Amino acid sequence: MPKPEQKQARRDEKVRENPEQIENKRDIVEKGNAIKEDIDKLLDEIDELLEDSEEFVENYIQRGGE
Amino acid sequence: MALIKAMGIETEYGIAVRHAADFDPVAASTMVVNSYKGRDPRRSATWNYEEESPLMDARGFMSEVVNPDAGADDEAAPAVNDILTNGGRYYVDHAHPEYCTPECSNARDLVIYDKAGELILEMSCRLAEQMLEEPRELAIYKNNSDGKGHSYGCHENYLVDRKTPFQSIVDGFTPFLVTRQVFAGAGKVGAENGGAHADFQIAQRSDFFETEVGLSTMVDRPIINTRDEPHADEKLYRRFHVIVGDANMSEFATYLKAGTAAITLQMIEDGLIRDQFKMREPVSAMRAVSRDLDFERDYAMEHMRRLSAIDIQRRYQRLAEQYVVDRRNVDQRHEVNADVVRQWGNTLDLLESDASQLDRRLDWVIKRSWLTAYRDRYDLEWTNHRMRMLDLQYHDIRPRAGIFYRLQKAGRIDRIISQEEAIHAISNPPLDTRAYFRGTCLKRFPEAVHAASWNSLIFDTNERDLRMIPMLHPLRGTRTMVGEMLQQSETPTQLLEYIESKSKVNP
Q: Cβ separation of A50 and B389 shorter than 8 Å?
């Protein structure tokens, strides 16, 4: 039989999340943000690689294949 | 019993000079290949285009006296040709630099030698660029289309038993090729060559195929190419030439593309696949599959109910599952085939459930996911020049400028080989095909190899007549068969004497 204090603790769990769960959620959010930052950084890099694209793409013509 | 599939890939690379008003692609390609060739002036062999007469053969070799002009000063020979110590070939083909891998015995080795080719092109590019004035720079693309209706090829070659009726390849292989693009496509923004509208499609090449069977590679392209130039003993072998494929940046895509094709051809040779998967309209299906990003369409079959592209692939894959088990004691590199079939099944499952999970593995999925992220960021139309540039720049083989390589560096691409393996393969041949003999001779005796082709080497030792060593069997000339002989020969003359003595003993 659980003692009353423990019951109380269980009830609290339902209302508030225990520290471990909060930590997990924070981890997931942080990971999500990190992934987003990562992707943003790569999109910035891609951006730099695409400079002068309008002219270059128009002029990229490859004849005489195969 | 089906032959082990000796295989190779020939890739024509796109080439451009940036920040230049105009440039001559032939001159630029020549500069690129020459820059690389110039690194080792001892290696001066020309490419021998002469048709070889059938010769008697002993252990895959026999020597005979040849015309001293053979291979040299051939008018048809392009000015630039480098026969590599890895057993491959690097040359200017029309207006492109082209790299052919050496013959490989399995899909994993093929990936290694295909990647070595990219490294060779990249090195060439850096060397050639030193001859350009700032701010001009050379860019080299491993893709298949300029987005304006001009396509250039990435052709595969597979060793097939001459006894296999060609019609059974046409019947059995066409549906495989039409649907293989679901994992082998390199992705493309837009449509070309009169193809129906597409924002984005799975394959670069599918718009360019207009007929089912034929000889041409440049106009009216066929799904099944009938070129019959075996570069080996024509009584025993066929070199089956596949021209529908895209050049892949992803190692995994190249691996699956060639590995599944090789096993499928084996199943055709063994009569397991005949015409049961024959499609009613393969040419129109080719374009439709490339545009069906969610695999919702199905296609009319000759002998069964309509099937989706994934279903057709799955039927081949299921047959292959048992087939590779049955062959486990025949194929030296059985573990590669077993892995190919496993990955083939996994990939089809993932494509059907959620293709985006393959955004580290398949070129078209990787490219689509980054195009989509970029498009969302700036709210762009698919036709926007930056979207088209991202498509092109994905294939730039320079590590700093190429988007695929930036993603790989950022840890967002799954690799199947190591960088060390690719670097080693730049100058060392595979061990288990005739490329071993070719590459090792070029490495050991660069000055003595006067001319080379896929199926012969011509030696000039300055001591006697030119000697031709035929290599009519792609799976001989291996380290096991000739390694000791090459190691014991201190001079090319000794090597030739050794081969001749063996020929006499074992005619």
A: yes
Lowest mean pLDDT among B73-82, B195-204, B282-291, B460-469: B73-82
Three-class secondary structure of residue A44 per DSSP: helix
Calpha distance B7→B241 (Å, rounded): 10
Q: Using a CB cutoff of 8 Å and minimum separation of 24, what contacts does B72-79 make? A: B72/B46, B72/B450, B72/B451, B74/B46, B74/B47, B74/B48, B74/B49, B74/B50, B76/B49, B77/B46, B77/B47, B77/B49, B78/B47, B79/B30
- The one catalytic residue in B40, B73, B82, B93 is B93
Task: Mark whether B396 is an active-site residue.
Answer: no
Backbone angles phi, psi at B336, to 5 degrees: -70, -45
Which CA distances in Å does B18 have to A49, B95, B136, B274? 13, 17, 5, 50
pLDDT digits (tens, 9 = 90+) for B178-196: 999 999 999 999 999 999 9
Q: How far apart are the C-alpha atoms of B146 and B38, rounded to whole Å?
A: 29
Cβ-Cβ contacts under 8 Å, A46 against chain B: 370, 374, 390, 393, 403, 406
Distance CA B453, CA B432 (A): 18
- Does the beta-carbon distance from B403 to A46 stay under 8 Å? yes
The answer to whether A62 contacts B96, with C-beta atoms less than 8 Å apart, is yes
Q: Is B318 on the interface with A (CB under 8 A)?
A: no
Measured between alpha carbons, how far is residue B31 from residues B41, B124, B228, B401 in Å?
A: 15, 9, 32, 20
- Indicate yes or no: CB of B389 within 8 angstroms of CB of A53: yes
Please tell me chain B's helix, strand, coil percentages from 3-state DSSP, rounded to the nearest 5: 40, 15, 45
pLDDT at B129 exceeding the cut of 80: yes
Average pLDDT, chain B: 92
Which residues of chain A register pLDDT less than 70?
1-17
CB atoms within 10 A of CB B292: 19
3-state secondary structure of B59: coil
Residues of A in contact with B241 (CB under 8 A): none
Scan for tokens 């084996």, then name that residue: B266
Tokens of B347: 């990939």
Q: Residues B245, B225: contact at Cβ < 8 Å?
A: no
Q: Which of B94, B377, B407 lies nearest to residue A64, judging by beta carbons?
A: B94
Backbone angles phi, psi at B431, to 5 degrees: -90, -20
Among B427, B449, B419, which residue's Cα sits nearest to residue B39?
B427
Cα–Cα distance, B248 to B204 (Å, whole number): 10
**How many Cβ atoms sit within 10 Å of the Cβ of residue B373?**
14
Domains of chain B, earliest start first? 7-354+418-424 (3.30.590)
